[in-house]
Design brief:
Elements: H1 9-36, H2 44-56, H3 69-96
Helix pairs in contact: 1-2, 1-3
Length: 97
């Protein structure tokens, strides 16, 4: 006898929310890496990632003004990545109950 696992709608919604948060965090991390590695700002892919990362960073850019621009990008956009993981994890946990 074969048993199939039926997933609840709440479990599926929780997985989708977690996936969206992970995607948002990955976009932020890619942007951080591109900045730190000195990517060409005129490149189309860089522009695409920047156009996604900046709105997702919400209020974090400029939150901590630092004299080192690389450290500022790492801190401000890194906090945005952690924010998305924490918030979507919390929402997913609420949905999974």
């Amino acid at each position: 006898m074969v048993r199939t696992r039926v997933s609840s709608g709440r479990g599926t919604a929780a997985r989708v929310v977690t996936g969206v948060g992970a995607l948002f965090a990955i976009i932020e991390v890619i942007y951080i890496l591109m900045i730190l590695m000195g990517a060409n700002p005129a490149n189309a892919f860089f522009g695409f990632i920047k156009s996604l990362a900046e709105p997702l960073a919400l209020f974090f850019p400029g939150l901590f003004p630092l004299s080192n621009p690389d450290l500022a990008v790492l801190l401000n956009y890194g906090l945005a990545a952690v924010f998305w993981l924490v918030i979507t994890g919390f929402i997913a946990r609420l949905l999974g109950r």
